Amino acid sequence: MNSAVAHSPTLLVHGGAWAIPADAAAAHLAGVRKALETGYALLSRGASALDAVEAAVTVLEDDPTFDAGRGSFLTSDGRVQLDALLMDGGRMKAGGVACVERLRNPIQAARLVLEESHHVYFVGDGAEQFAQAHGITLIDNSELVLDRERERLIIAKRREAAGFGDDTFSGIDTGVPTDRSSSVGWDTPLLPVLHDDKSPETAVLLSQVDRSSSAGAPGPSHLGTGESMNQTSSTCHDSHDTVGAVALDTRGNLAAGTSTGGTLNKTPGRVGDSSLIGCGCYADNLSAAVSLTGWGEPIMKLVLGKWATDRVASGTTPEVAAREAIAYLFNRLGGHGGIILLDPDGRFGLAHNTPAMAWGLATSKGLQTGLTV
């Protein structure tokens, strides 16, 4: 966007939407604050929105609190596979990578794809070879794996063996084995860790769902933002989720980036919404910049990022469009997640229908962080 009028720079980040327990709250708030400080320092010195988003997401990838970069969830074969997308709303250029195992910061590889290739998207070995050819050092996958995540994978496999369905995409785990022939009887009490209703990404506990809600979304609030949900429940076990950022620079350009380690115990090669244009990430100076978090499959089916930015282009404020997008996600497909949305005028919106979503906002007025909207 070419304009003689200087815009007020804005940076909005998220660290994932899920049931963040009380003992993890401080780490999430500290993580998003550090990302804000890093990215906004660039914006305030006149750097591009693209630079700010890349820098902010890199900070989040380097923080094992989040499901991106080091410390991400493990695939079913015990490896980390990462996806990321970066998009420039002024030039309408994008770069994405998926299923990479030897890159510490996939968002930086995505930036290289955006700037240095006439292609838009690379996966697996091809993405790693492209990154290496452009100066990024490849690492051993073991450098991304934490013992914490090995333990989580063991728990996930025990649940699977006990006959519990994968509630990552269905929304709510009833706590009942899907296979009646399971060696674990229907009346046999399971260990708490096996009976946990927390899904690998977003976790809406069955007891927290208000089925009388007019929007059909979890929680007593109309759009299920989770403000009244108990985040200290003992049924919530440690987890984490996708990260993202959207920015507006002084020249009026928008950018967006999303990065993830995907879902726990996923089949190797699975790609979610995060690195797909218009799904988990999108930016266009004529509408808005967006990053989403949550269950990837429903978000992909709805192309929800583009859906939200189109609402802004048609005149809906980002604040309203964000809430409408999350309501649409739940009402249409029973999905759960969160969204951050920013328009060319600096107006923004945040929404989630999970118990919490780590978020942060930086403007000329200062920095704000939170765990609910």
Quick structural overview:
By secondary structure, the chain is of the alpha+beta class.
General description of the model:
Helix content is 28%, strand content 20%. The chain is globular. It has one domain: (Glycosyl)asparaginase (Glutamine Phosphoribosylpyrophosphate, subunit 1, domain 1, 4-Layer Sandwich). It has 8 helices and 12 strands. The chain starts with 9 loop residues before the first strand and ends with a strand. The longest helix is centred in the N-terminal third of the chain and has 23 residues, at 22-44. Strand 11 and strand 12 (366-370) form a beta hairpin. The chain is of the alpha+beta class and 373 residues long. Helix 1 packs antiparallel against helix 2 (49-62) and helix 7 (304-313) packs antiparallel against helix 8 (318-333). The strands form 2 sheets. It has an 8-stranded mixed sheet with strand order 4-3-2-6-5-1-11-12. It has helices at 22-44, 49-62, 106-116, 124-133, 147-161, 296-302, 304-313, 318-333, and strands at residues 10-18, 82-88, 93-100, 121-123, 243-248, 254-260, 281-283, 289-294, 337-342, 348-352, 356-363, 366-370. 55% of the residues are buried.
